[in-house]
Amino acid sequence: MSQSHNRGLIEDFGRWREFAPGMWAWIFHKFTGWVLIGYLFTHVAVLSTAISGPQLYTTTLRSLESLLLVRVLEVGLLAVATFHIMNGIRLLFIDLGVGLESQDKSFYASLVLTGAIAVASVPTFLSGAF
Amino acid sequence: MSTQLQRTETEGDESPQEQRLERKSLAEGEREAQRTEEESTGDETPHVHLKVFRYDPEVEAKREPRFDDFRVPAPQGTTVLDALMYARDEFDSTLTFRHSCRQAVCGSDALFINGSQRLGCQTQIQDLDQRPVRVEPLPHQEVEKDLVVDMEHFYDQMEAVEPYFQGETPDEEEQLQSRENREKVKMSTRCIWCGACQSSCNIAAGDNEYLGPAAINKAYRFAMDEREDDDIKKHRMNILEQEHGVWRCQTQFSCTEVCPKDIPLTEHIQEMKREAVKDNLKFW
Ligand code: HEM
Ligand code: SF4
Ligand code: FES
């Protein structure tokens, strides 16, 4: 066979805008899954300050909660967890072969619910932050 | 739109597949209204602007891929393949692409049209929203020349699942299949080996050894055929269960969306995954 043209990665990346709903669901699921793992470590680190006594634990938590950034990240964390759970349930159904024909709608529903829950949580997470 | 509409041979409620096809044709009605507005002004034949990928390692000027522009007449009913043929016959005889049947049967002309894998002969210009119409070779395959890609790897994957019937043929008897069993494999038999699904799959793009949707669908067609023995089914499942088999599918549904024969590929892959689990977990 003669020479052929390998279009390489760059050109393939350019096609990402053509992604179908199922592909976005897949990317978001990967992303949120790994963010949750990342949070798990942070979470354990913060909780383990309690080993050095209730005093340190309390001051650590208080100072963290006084940071606006932490409050905002908490909303983000909730959104990430909600999406992962919603889409996780969607994926479990897809694995069972249930509702395959509305896989796009269930993805959009996961997004809408995630948005709604995240917005609804804003008053709780941000109260007294300003 | 498929040239062949799916009709179930047995009575029953609308299957998910039928509902999907119905939705597809609804969206078409909407585009129709929009079209008549934009294209029926004036009485000359409407033209379409094509942007076509060009590459030819043997010609100096085309060694670096580029896009060529063609303006070709596109009266109602013109397909992308028709337009390409016009461009080749009237403007540039070196424009190269595969085609044969012109009726979505041979599977030669799967192309990347306006950012999606479609058959040139099955895609009418007026059904495309975007202008100019961009025609590129199938992504994730190497380009030989212009719109011609190397299909060797795709064919290898198809061969890997032994895409042929391996039932015992009883002497002087017909190989009868039950109605229900025929219905079960019916959609999977429609594959025309166009490679659109494989090209649309991100997993196949990242893992060259992944069997891919078409091959798994082909395996489904025979594994689900009750006329084959259990031994053969076991053998087929062994092929599907390996590391680069069914488990690589991440249910992104892109293959199902692009398949020109409307085969519910993801559904079939998922069913093979469940078969694989049943094959290995023996509680019963
Ligand atoms: C109710 C809660 C949860 C549900 C229903 C759920 C569901 C799922 C499902 C079904 C998958 C597999 C997706 C696939 O088919 O490929 C998955 C992947 C994953 N999950 Fe969860 N999950 C939950 C909670 C969590 C938590 C708390 C974490 C982290 C601590 C997590 C981390 C991950 C990771 C890292 C992956 C793999 C992502 C990848 O494919 O790379 N999940 N989840
Ligand atoms: S399954 Fe559909 S998209 Fe894939 S090769 Fe067969 S006909 Fe083409
Ligand atoms: S030319 Fe045969 S499928 Fe299009």
Structural overview:
Chain A has 130 residues and is mostly helical. Chain A has a domain at 19-35 and 66-124. Chain A contains 5 helices and no strands. Chain A has helices at 8-13, 21-47, 54-65, 68-95, 103-126. In chain A, helix 2 crosses helix 4 (68-95). Chain B has 284 residues and is an alpha+beta fold. Chain B folds into 2 domains: 45-149, Ubiquitin-like (UB roll) (Roll); 152-167 and 177-280, Fumarate Reductase Iron-sulfur Protein, Chain B, domain 2 (Orthogonal Bundle), CATH 1.10.1060. Helices cover 38% and strands 12% of the residues of chain B. Chain B is built from 10 helices and 7 strands. Chain B has helices at residues 16-39, 80-91, 152-160, 179-186, 196-200, 202-206, 213-223, 230-241, 254-258, 265-280; strands at 47-54, 66-73, 110-113, 116-119, 133-136, 143-145, 148-149. In chain B, the strands form 2 sheets. A 5-stranded mixed beta sheet of chain B has the order 2-1-5-3-4. Chain B has a two-stranded antiparallel sheet with strand order 6-7. In chain B, helix 7 (213-223) packs across helix 10 (265-280). Chain B is globular and about 65 Å long. Chains A and B meet through helix 2 and helix 4 of A and helix 1 and helix 10 of B. The structure holds protoporphyrin IX containing FE (HEM), iron/sulfur cluster and FE2/S2 (inorganic) cluster (FES). The site of iron/sulfur cluster has 15 residues of chain B, from helix 5 and helix 7. Chain A: It is found in: Membrane. Chain A: It holds the Pfam family Sdh_cyt. Chain A: GO terms for molecular function: electron transfer activity; metal ion binding.
